[in-house]
Amino acid sequence: MMLKQKYLFIYSCLLIPLLFFLSIRIVPILYSFNISFREWDLLSEEKPFVGLQNFVHLFQDEVFLASIRNTLIYVIVGVPAQLLVGLVIALLLQRLNRLKGFFRTLYFIPYVTSVVAVSWVFRWTLMKNGIVNALLIKLGFEPQLFLGSPSQGIYIIIAVMIWQNIGFQMLIFLTGLETVPKSYEEAAAIDGANSWQRLWSITLPLLNPVIIFSIVIATISFLQSFTQVLNMTNGGPLNSTVSLVLYIYNLAFKHFKMGEASAATIILFAMILSLSLLQMKILNRKIEY
């Protein structure tokens, strides 16, 4: 009797978060599928079924195509750069014997800082008459448009996102490095392997599960680029920085086209799911100690 009560209590505790997950995550996703196949306007009482018409309209919209292109740039440029910098910092911090906690905190502070505040600080410093351009003029260089440039803006936003999330990647890699057996590196060093050979042949292969996790998390983060884009450029200039999530936001809450916004959300969901599965399929491999 006591055993049954124990299991009943365990399943009851598991049921509460499951119901929360279903009501907050699964049900809205399924409901968005329904909306994506309807002409769903907040200002209209009728929501007729239109099939794939919303998806067709999206791919005929140049701004939507630009948002897809920009989102892929965010991922292709941002993910490798963020992982590389995070790994390098983690490797350097691992070698420190003093002040390791101080530097960990220093690199992690941007991650817990308000994204809106960080975005506006960079926006102010990179204005046409901002601090950075004033410094460039004093050094004898031409002032730059930075966020006002169609060719520079997106890469500046990527750099800000990398800078703010680098503490998270650093912490993940540091945790992974602590799990790598020291005996392997010591044995390789005795056999004459240099630092680069030990890193390439021992450390990185054993970090593979951590690398996969970091890549998937970073990819999802860059695919969902929104706050930095909204606050730094609002998608401009000339839609050169608009992300897919910002496009969905404008479509839903500025133009009230919930049907097309839901269709764009389904496309984003498909991109996140397919890229995550592809990365796990390609990068995942069995680790033998």
Automatic annotation (TrEMBL):
It is found in: Cell membrane. Keywords: Cell membrane, Membrane, Transmembrane, Transmembrane helix, Transport. The keyword Membrane applies. Residues 68-279 form the ABC transmembrane type-1 domain. It is a multi-pass membrane protein. The chain crosses the membrane at residues 7-31, 72-93, 105-126, 153-174, 206-226, 261-278. It comes from the Bacteria. Belongs to the binding-protein-dependent transport system permease family. This is Sugar ABC transporter permease. It comes from Paenibacillus violae.
